[in-house]
Description:
Structural class of chain A: mainly alpha
Strand content of chain A: 5-15%
Order of helices and strands of chain A: HHHHHHEHHHEEHH
Structural class of chain B: mainly alpha
Strand order of the largest sheet of chain A: 2-3
Oligomer: heterotrimer
Strand content of chain B: under 5%
Order of helices and strands of chain B: HHHHHHHHH
Largest interface: A-C, 74 and 80 residues
Number of strands of chain B: 0
Largest sheet of chain B: none
Number of domains of chain B: 1
Number of strands of chain A: 3
Radius of gyration of chain B: 19 Å
Amino acid sequence: MLFQAYFHSSPLPNPLLKVLLIITLSVFALTSALAITLFVKLFGITFLALTRTRFAEKAAEVPKLMLIGGALPAALCILSGLFSRTLILLGFGVEIPDMLVLGLIIIGTCGLVWLAVRNSGPSGGPRISKETWGCGILAQHPTMEYTSAGFSEPIVVIFKKIYRTEISSTRVYADTKGSIFKSGTASIHLIKFFEERLYLPVACAVSLVSSHVSKMQNGKLDTYLLYVFIAVLTLMIFTRFFA
Amino acid sequence: MSFSFLADPAFLEETVRMLFVFVLITAAFILSSRNIASLLTVYTVQSLLLVLIAVFLFMIEGNKTLLAIAALTLVSKVILIPIFINMIGEKIKISRDMKFNYLEPTASLLVSVALILLAYVFLSGFISEFVLGKLFFMGAVIGLSLTLMGMLVLFSRRKVITKVLGYLTMENGVLLFGVFVADLPFIIEILIIIDLMILVLLTTILAIGLDSTIEEYHNRLQRLNIWSGGKY
Amino acid sequence: MNASFILFALLNTGFVLLVSPLFMSLIKKVKAYAQGRKGPRLLQSYYDLHKLMQKEVVYSPNSSGIMRIAPYLNLSVIIVATLFVPIVFVPEAPAGIGNVIVFLYLLAIERFFTALCGLDAGSTFGGMGSSRLMSLSAVIEPTMIIAFAALAYVLKTVNFHEMFTITAGSPIPVSPTLALISISLFIIIIVETGRLPVDNPATHLELTMINEAMILEQSGKNLALIEFTHAVKQIILMAILINILIPWGLAIRLTFAGLVVSCLYFLVKASLLAVLIGLFESSLAKMRLFRLPGFYMMAFFFSALTILMEAFT
Lengths: 243, 232, 313
């Protein structure tokens, strides 16, 4: 519906408002595309293909009653999307496309396609091969798959001016000349924008000012007596020469 | 299909608007392109678009000075100045301008969009668009944006020849602004052309030096590295 | 939903399914001629699809149900997307079929499932293809939205059926801004169908694969369905460009002669566009992967200027 509102904004009279809407529309589209990328990464890395860590190998499904807690909001999302036209028409008079009809058409077409190609190909059903083709490497190993950091690496590189990523790595070598690698760590660190650009400079400025002020109010009795002495002298000079 | 819609003023206005978009696109290419030969071609195309805009404006308005401006721009900026720069470029073989100061091409395109908006906001404070007409106001905004984008080229590119093209873009922007906002008398137009010539000539003199033999000029050029933008 | 819409659905989908492999071969032939060779014959794509249908389907033991249902789901989503783009005649659009935003998200669903298939078998190529595709399509998304928003601004509607009625109904061009939008649409065709300079559809080297990497694990009739999906996606994107820029010949009312005329006109216009795409591809080399956002940014600048021009007047 947000997109519909953006697209219908052409009759607006104020050109600057339209420009602002266009800018926010493009950023919104970028956000939604990045959200789709995130979900591909999430679903793909977590659930598909070989398990990547020891912990994932031992993962077991939770009891069925716990699944209901997650399944219920998911089902509500899907149903409110499919039945969105009836829901909206109950409250507002806005015309939006009918998702239920579309969903039914998609499922129907899927069934038609399946029926159409069901009998083609050699009989006996699909064959399960021994392993995924690995370009000549003999046994498929989980470290050959894409990791989640590797999946999002193009996005990190494309947007590196915004994210200010720091890629840091340490290496420990087994020999003195630095040629036999023993172990190492690598990390990708994105700046926390609000903390590093907004809060920290203000906090540093405040602590700078307060460090100067604290020299003046340091709790020693002599300093306060000095202040009283300076005040008395100033009063004397002021009343004699200026009042 | 009758072609009488081509003389319709609304259609001509829309065509001029389309030409505005192409002019800004050429400025964006000058900002972000790395190949020097294509930079010169893009500048020639930009000047040609200006000639077309002047011709279309003549068809809308009927002011004969516009035709004279179009002819002068055609001769000087589309034919003469590119030939001149080509002659210089043949003696010095530079082909690519790889590095950028302060602004990468992607960021400079975003900054250009902001500059266009800034020009719009700035000009709408001075010139009310109901006095001038929407097309003329748009032309003034585009002229100002072209000048600002030319200034962007001046500081963000390294090689001198690109900076010269950026300055020429700025002149194009001023010309566009003047065509739409002021009654540009012919003499001012000639003055602008003369100062363009002086600029290109000056750069060549600085590069060549007061000697006139080609061999000495080559040696001096190699030593001083003037056309390659300094010590880089 | 009346009878004319059901007739439209059958005719439109049937026509698109019939001619889409032809245009894939046509583009390949144009590229071959540009390289000085003869190239495959024009009906070769049909023979290839038939050959793939006869082969057996092989699944990796690591793949899951995604790999099994994704080809069917992709083809059905793209077939539903063809309902949104009228090619033979323009019917009354019921219930929001024809909405631009839904069309864009149908294409996004297809991309989503193809990317999941790439990760499914656990090969390195698939993951690489998925990651590159999703990153690059995230960067082209603002340009696509702005180009379609510009269309909505100029033609004052968000429905493809109404848009084509407006452009095909007026004897003169509606606005020269449509020429600018069609340049943006051309760039979107190049990006969405994975043609040079974005991605080389003829290569299988890992330096240059984006789209081919994800479908490397498919075989048999699944691969046939995926290739077919690719061809249909190409032709509906071409149809949008054609019907916005040069729509004359598209039948607005349902008559038999009108149908035949618009089919013939479409074949001629699409062949011209296919030749143009082939020549454009032959004149460029594939760009380095991280230079592509610069190219997309230029396209975004262009679309943003178009829509700013519309907004300021």
